[in-house]
């Protein structure tokens, strides 16, 4: 009898764990697509977000021409990211995927950043890139590689990563991301350019530097 009770409890625990794991991810779409709209008067379906009536969806809801245009890399870091997510393509809503084009000037950098909601797979279309990501605490291991035209590299969800053009000519890459809205947090901008600013007492202790260094870095953002 005791053994039967233990087995029953074990089965209940397994079922509870299975339910938890099943409910911890986004639900599958319940229709073919859910074109995101801002005008609530034209909406009839809800599946995570307000959606346009599928009967009035148009080809332009699933179209974006922005990635054919090179990004302007005339900035401090020498790179430009052109996103193609649900903000640009309403038809991506609930589909769990997006793209981005990354243009690099010679020696341009896509600074260390993270995507809180997506894994990224990067394909080099032109040029040579040094890329890498850092594993989580406590190891903080750098995993890096030099990529050439046609090479692919994966950046796991949530981990800090970067891309640097190590060539004397421009470089171009396409990134595919496992979210319609992957989000991006550029580390330096977030830490030294937050509004309001993070207290210098916090940053001097965190980075073990003088307050003058923190003041200078905050002034850059």
TrEMBL record:
Disulfide bonds join 34-51. Residues 65-215 form the Cupin type-1 domain. Keywords: Apoplast, Disulfide bond, Glycoprotein, Manganese, Metal-binding, Secreted, Signal. Mn(2+) binds at residues 113, 115, 120, 161. SMART domains: Cupin_1. GO terms for cellular component: apoplast. Pfam families: Cupin_1. Oxalate binds at residues 110, 115, 120. It is found in: Secreted, Extracellular space, Apoplast. It comes from the Eukaryota. One of its GO terms (molecular function) is manganese ion binding. InterPro entries: Cupin_1, Germin, Germin_Mn-BS, RmlC-like_jellyroll, RmlC_Cupin_sf. Residues 1-24 form the signal peptide. Belongs to the germin family. PANTHER family: GERMIN-LIKE PROTEIN SUBFAMILY 3 MEMBER 3. May play a role in plant defense. Probably has no oxalate oxidase activity even if the active site is conserved. This is Germin-like protein. It comes from Vitis rotundifolia. The lineage of its organism: Eukaryota, Viridiplantae, Streptophyta, Embryophyta, Tracheophyta.
């Amino acid at each position: 009898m005791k053994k039967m009770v233990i087995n029953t409890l074990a089965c209940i625990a397994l079922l509870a764990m299975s339910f938890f794991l099943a409910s911890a991810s986004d639900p599958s779409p319940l229709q073919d697509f859910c074109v995101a709209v801002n005008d609530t008067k034209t909406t009839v379906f809800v599946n995570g977000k307000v959606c346009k009536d599928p009967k009035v969806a148009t080809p332009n809801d699933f179209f974006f021409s922005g990635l054919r245009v090179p990004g302007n890399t005339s900035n401090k870091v020498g790179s430009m990211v052109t996103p193609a997510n649900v903000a640009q393509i309403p038809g991506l809503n609930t589909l769990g995927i997006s793209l981005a084009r990354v243009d690099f000037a010679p020696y341009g950098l896509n600074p260390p950043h993270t995507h809180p909601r997506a894994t990224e797979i990067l394909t080099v279309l032109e040029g040579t890139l040094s890329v890498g990501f850092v594993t989580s605490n406590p190891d903080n291991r750098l995993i890096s590689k030099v990529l050439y035209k046609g090479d692919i590299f994966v950046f796991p969800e949530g981990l800090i990563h970067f891309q640097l053009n190590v060539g004397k000519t421009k470089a171009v890459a396409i990134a595919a991301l496992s979210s319609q809205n992957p989000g991006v947090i550029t580390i330096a901008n977030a830490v030294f350019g937050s509004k309001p600013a993070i207290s210098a007492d916090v940053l001097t202790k965190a980075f073990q530097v003088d307050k003058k260094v923190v003041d200078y870095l905050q002034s850059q953002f």
